[in-house]
Amino acid sequence: MKVSHLTVSNISKQFDKNEVIKNLAFTVEKNEFVSILGPSGSGKSTIFSLIGGILSPDQGTIHLDHQVINGKRGFISYMPQTPSLLPWRTIVENVLLGQELQGKKEKEEALEMIDIAGLAGYENAYPHELSGGMKQRASFIRALLSPQSIICLDEPFSALDELTRLDMQKWLLSIWEEHRRTILFVTHNIEEALFLSDRIIVLSNKPSQVAAEFHVPFSRPREESLFLEDEFLEWKRKIYYSLKKTGE
Amino acid sequence: MMKVIAKGWRPLLVLLLLFIGWETVAIKSRVPDWLLPTPTKIFYEGFNGWANFYPDLLSTIKLSLLGFALGLVIGLLTAILLHLLPFIRESIYPLLIISQNIPIIVLAPLLVIWFGFGLLPKMIVITLVCFFPITVAALDGFKQTSNELKHYMIMAGASNKQLFWKLELPYALPSLFSGLKISATYSVMGAVISEWLGAKDGIGVYMTLASSSFRTDRVFVAIFAIVALSLLFFSIIVLIERWLVRWQLKGAK
């Protein structure tokens, strides 16, 4: 039997008497882009804390390939909601941090990625000299350069303004289509999930479970015009109703 | 540099006016020199007696640098220890505060009785004065580390050691430097007090001799030397801070 890259099997987690996640199960294939879509407060961040090993599930297991990673840190690379760049490091030093934590550093590769990311000329700038969108780009490059095989993105664009967010989504797709990695993307934005992912997992309200799962049929590379196509809007409606149902 | 000159003239002018006022009052009211010498007489003594004073100054500089270095090491180590081991922090922190409540003037003679006239009691005095601001400042700095950055580091798999060296220590630097500035100026005072205990040379010895022989001008020379030395140490720390924490200064603009 083929083993998925990441397998989350029937995990549950509760804080005191508050059940946050109950029998949650899903898989992510190698080099797949999967979005987890859920209403706010549905325990999306808790799922990441469990996969990242900060928390341990009360029940169930999390497998990365054949290895159980319950409560073990260092198996994922991570991009948080805020850029979280270290203010005393230049962009290139920041981008290398993910690698540095795991051992080896490859500066050449980092400089190349900075160039591809459209941050050329800012290698030796400090984070405060960059705009919000540029900081998030650096943060994503940092996650991409980290040696781990799976990248977890926690609502990375939710703090950006509308226009920048669209730019960043297009930018993320263009980079990812060139440098395929396994991505688990948490968001509460339906359009974002549809535009970016291969598959969308809709979470129910607390306690979180998988309420629905959608395979996104749009071919790649995807263009901005996709947002206005009838099929896209049709899908948006479908997912919207499935989300709404979970809220009731 | 231009900024320093542009800002620096105001305190200098105030100081100059103060000296002129002092000079005029001292001359007009005919205060005897052993009571209050005029600034010109003090500068005259400082200039003429330089050869005599110089060895004492050098000795105090050495003593304060040595004491400051020791205070820095002990202060920083204490902070790191208390930060990394919270159960020790709870039990030791009150003790640290008590160490600052004992008047040095009372403690100093006791230290001589216990440890003699050597370097050890002097180092204890200076370290006792110096380490506390460093420990408190560093501890506060460690504690203030941004949760957001900490969360990223932990999620990205940083070990506790990496978390400390790559995040908490650099994050605490600006705070640590406020402590260092206080300690650097205290170190001179600590050195002078420790020299009162009994030493061959040093500003403290020079001062005691001068005051017991009513050479008030020399007492003032010693005072000015202590002030100048403290300012010098302070500025050196500020320069090092500017260089080490340059990312933050740029952000402030």
TrEMBL record, chain B:
- What SUPFAM superfamilies does this protein map onto? MetI-like
Bilayer-crossing residues are: 63-85, 92-117, 123-142, 219-240
Tell me if Membrane is a UniProt keyword of this record: yes
Q: Does the keyword Transport apply?
A: yes
Q: Where is the ABC transmembrane type-1 domain?
A: 57-238
> Per UniProt, what is the membrane topology?
Multi-pass membrane protein
Return any one Pfam family short name. BPD_transp_1
Gene3D superfamilies registered for this protein in UniProt: MetI-like
Its primary localisation, in coarse terms, equals membrane
Where is it located?
Cell membrane
Q: Which InterPro entries match?
A: MetI-like (IPR000515), MetI-like_sf (IPR035906)
Q: Which UniProt keywords apply?
A: Cell membrane, Membrane, Transmembrane, Transmembrane helix, Transport
- Which Gene Ontology cellular component annotation is one that this UniProt entry carries? plasma membrane
Q: Which GO terms describe its biological process?
A: transmembrane transport
Q: Which family does it belong to?
A: Belongs to the binding-protein-dependent transport system permease family.
Mind telling me what this protein is named?
ABC transporter permease
